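Saturday, quiet lab. Running sequence design on the C-alpha cells for the scaffold JK sent over.
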C-alpha cells in the first residue's frame, strides 16, 4: 500500500519510446506547461517528427524550448488552455517500430488533473494489439520534459513535482483495506469534521475521524455510503482550501460516480488528487477546529469484476474484434458512407475509462478513419445506456445499416439519441436489436468487422 506524501520533491518518470539518438532536456525549473508545438511526417507512417514546449516560469513569463527532432513536416500547435488549478499529470503514447529507421512515437495523450485529454499525433497505422502502449502516470504536476531524437521524436519522459491536496504536513493514521462510508459536517468556517467507516476485515468495520468531533451525531451530517462495497470503491478526491488554511469543500469520486461537493465549493484554492488507476483505502490529515489538510492511501485494484455479454447483433463473417472490459465509456466516434452517408456504418471507435486512465479502442470497420466527430460524454454525469442496432444488406452480405446511441445524465434526464445510418431517433420505434439491460452499465464492446464496414456489435455489461 502506498502513501502519497504531501511534499514537493522534483522527480522524473519515463520512458515512452527509446533512447535512440541524442538526448534533449528542457529542465525542471518551470512552473507549468502552456503549449505543445509539434510536426508530423507529411506522408508515410506519420510519426511525430518534432516537438517543442512552451513553459511558464516562476516569474510569470514564458519560455519556449528548442525544437526536438527534425523540422520539415506538417506543423501543428496545441495551446493548452488550463482552467483554475488545472495542470498536466499524465502522459501516455503509442510507439511503432519502423523497419528501416527504428522506433518512433505515433501518438501522445496528455491528461490534466481534471481528467481532460489532450492528444497529438496520428492514429493511422497503429495496431492496438501489437504496437507498444506506454503510460507515465505521476502523482503531481508535470513541469518539464526530456527525451531523445534522431530524425524524429524517439523517446519522451517528464519531470514532475508532487502537489499537496490541501494545507500543510499531515499526520499519519492507520492503513485499512478500503473505505465503506464517509460522513462530513460542513460549517461556515469549512469542514468541522470528517468521519470514515473503514474496512479492517471485521463485519462492523472501524471508524476514524479528523477535525473537531466530540462523539455526538449532528442532523446536518452529510453521508456518503458505498452501498456495493467492495465493488464500488473510491478513486479520487478534490476540493477547495481557503486562505486561512482550512478546507472549505470536498468532493469524492468512485468507480460508480461522484459524491459531493460537501461544503462551500469554489471558495478558495482548488486542489485535486486524480485517479492513478488505484483505489483509495484510507485517509490521513491534520486538524484544528476544522479540517486543515487531507491525503490518501492507495493500492492497485486487485481484480476485475465479472461481466455479462449481449450480442453480437448484425451479420456474420469478417474478423472478430473485442475491446475488453473497462470501467466506463467516455466517448465514441462513428463514420458512415453511401447516399447521404446512410447506406452503411463504416467504422466505430470507443474511448474508455479505466479508473481515470483514458483507453482508446481501435477503429472497427474501415481502418483509415477520415471523418466522423468524436462525441465526448460529460463524464461522470453522463453515461451511455443503450445502442439500437438495425441490420441489412451491405455489399451483398448482412451487416449493420444503422445505430441509435442513447445516453443519460444522472438517473433520469433524457438526452436526444445520436442517429447514424439508416435508423430513427424516435425512442418508441424499436430497433432490430437493442443493447441494454436494466440495472447494468456498458463497460466494453465487441463484434465483427469487414474491410470497409461494421458487421456486428455486442457489449460487455456490469451491474451498476
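Result came back. Writing it out in full:
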Amino acid at each position: 500500500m502506498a502513501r502519497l506524501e504531501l511534499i514537493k520533491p522534483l522527480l522524473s518518470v519515463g520512458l515512452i519510446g527509446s533512447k535512440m539518438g541524442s538526448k534533449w532536456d528542457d529542465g525542471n525549473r518551470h512552473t507549468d506547461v502552456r503549449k505543445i508545438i509539434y510536426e508530423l511526417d507529411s506522408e508515410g507512417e506519420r510519426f511525430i517528427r518534432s516537438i517543442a514546449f512552451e513553459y511558464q516560469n516562476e516569474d510569470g513569463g514564458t519560455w519556449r524550448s528548442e525544437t526536438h527532432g527534425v523540422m520539415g513536416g506538417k506543423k501543428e500547435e496545441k495551446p493548452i488552455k488550463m482552467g483554475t488549478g488545472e495542470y498536466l499529470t499524465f502522459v501516455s503514447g503509442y510507439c511503432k517500430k519502423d523497419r528501416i529507421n527504428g522506433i518512433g512515437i505515433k501518438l501522445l495523450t496528455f491528461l490534466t488533473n481534471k481528467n481532460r485529454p489532450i492528444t497529438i499525433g496520428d492514429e493511422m497505422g497503429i495496431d492496438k494489439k501489437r504496437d507498444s502502449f506506454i503510460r507515465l502516470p505521476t502523482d503531481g504536476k508535470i513541469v518539464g520534459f526530456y527525451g531523445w531524437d534522431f530524425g524524429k521524436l524517439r523517446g519522451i519522459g517528464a519531470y514532475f513535482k508532487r502537489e499537496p491536496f490541501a494545507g500543510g504536513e499531515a499526520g499519519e493514521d492507520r492503513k485499512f483495506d478500503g473505505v465503506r462510508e464517509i460522513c462530513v459536517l460542513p460549517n461556515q468556517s469549512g469542514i468541522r469534521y470528517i468521519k470514515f467507516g473503514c474496512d479492517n476485515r471485521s463485519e462492523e468495520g472501524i471508524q476514524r475521524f479528523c477535525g473537531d468531533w466530540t462523539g455526538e451525531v449532528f442532523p446536518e451530517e452529510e453521508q456518503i455510503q458505498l452501498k456495493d462495497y467492495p465493488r464500488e470503491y473510491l478513486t479520487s478526491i478534490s476540493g477547495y482550501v481557503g486562505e486561512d488554511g482550512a478546507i472549505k469543500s470536498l468532493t469524492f469520486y468512485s468507480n460508480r460516480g461522484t459524491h459531493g461537493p460537501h461544503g462551500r465549493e469554489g471558495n478558495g484554492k482548488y486542489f485535486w488528487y486524480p485517479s492513478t488507476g488505484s483505489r483509495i483505502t484510507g485517509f490521513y490529515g491534520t486538524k484544528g477546529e476544522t479540517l486543515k489538510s487531507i491525503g490518501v492511501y492507495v493500492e492497485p485494484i486487485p481484480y476485475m469484476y465479472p461481466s455479462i455479454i449481449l450480442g453480437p447483433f448484425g451479420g456474420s463473417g469478417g474478423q472478430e474484434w473485442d475491446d475488453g472490459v473497462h470501467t466506463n465509456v467516455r466517448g465514441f466516434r462513428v463514420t458512415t458512407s453511401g447516399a447521404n452517408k446512410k447506406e452503411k456504418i463504416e467504422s466505430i471507435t470507443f474511448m474508455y475509462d479505466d479508473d481515470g486512465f483514458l483507453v482508446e479502442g481501435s477503429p472497427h470497420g474501415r481502418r483509415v478513419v477520415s471523418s466522423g466527430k468524436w462525441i465526448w460524454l460529460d463524464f461522470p454525469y453522463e453515461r451511455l445506456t443503450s445502442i439500437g442496432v438495425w441490420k441489412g444488406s451491405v455489399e451483398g452480405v448482412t451487416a449493420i445499416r444503422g445505430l441509435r446511441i442513447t445516453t443519460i445524465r444522472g438517473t433520469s434526464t433524457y438526452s436526444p439519441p445520436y442517429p447514424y445510418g439508416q435508423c430513427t431517433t424516435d425512442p418508441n420505434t424499436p430497433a432490430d436489436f437493442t443493447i441494454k439491460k436494466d440495472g447494468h452499465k456498458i463497460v466494453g464492446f465487441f463484434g465483427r468487422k469487414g474491410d470497409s464496414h461494421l458487421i456486428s456489435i455486442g457489449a460487455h455489461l456490469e451491474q451498476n
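Notes for JK: The chain has no helices and 38 strands. The CA atoms of residues 31 and 60 lie 9 Å apart. Ask whether to fix the surface positions before the next round.
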